[in-house]
TrEMBL record:
The organism of origin for this protein: Entomomonas asaccharolytica
InterPro entries membership: Met8-like (IPR028161), NAD(P)-bd_dom_sf (IPR036291), Sirohaem_synthase_N (IPR006367)
E.C. no: 1.3.1.76
Keyword NAD among record annotations: yes
Protein's recorded name: precorrin-2 dehydrogenase
Length: 150
């Protein structure tokens, strides 16, 4: 894999599509809420935790190819690889796409993120080991909270 380049994006008024509404989608949505993005979730079934998130539009049905139209960022976050692959078939060259179950089909990855008192820290394992990223995130968070108290 070529070297990845980390960014911090301003998503105000950018269209974000999340296909799927399970645990993986919930994690993505929790990071997106509050960014000013126009977030749309498409899924026939939706976790209750997603239903109560602010500032998202939920379309409770199966994915349709037209759902990707005009979306800047698209997450295929279902537990069905066929659906995730189908979403990927409708991506335009200018769109950012993350097939959360198949990194090689993605053109970006969302890192683990820590937000503390004006500081943003991103942790990425280049989509190879999300569990490791989560552990590192917790250790860095613990360190930051301890050092900010001192």
């Amino acid at each position: 894999m070529t070297k990845l380049y980390p960014l911090t994006l301003k998503l105000i008024n950018k269209k974000v599509l999340v296909v799927g509404a399970g645990k993986v989608a919930l994690r993505k949505l929790q990071g997106l809420v509050g960014t000013g993005a126009e977030i749309t979730v498409v899924s026939p079934e939706v976790l209750p935790e997603i239903e109560v998130l602010p500032d998202i539009t939920i379309i409770q049905r199966h994915f349709q190819p037209s759902d990707t139209k005009n979306a800047h960022i698209i997450y295929a976050a279902t537990d069905n690889q066929q659906v995730n692959d189908e979403v990927g078939r409708y991506i335009e060259h200018w769109q950012w796409f993350d097939n959360t179950a198949l990194p090689e089909a993605s053109n970006f990855f969302t890192p683990a993120v820590i937000r503390e008192k004006g500081l943003i820290v991103s942790i990425s394992t280049e989509a190879r080991d999300p569990t490791r990223a989560k552990l590192i995130k917790q250790k860095i968070t613990d360190f930051l909270l301890k050092s900010m108290k001192e």
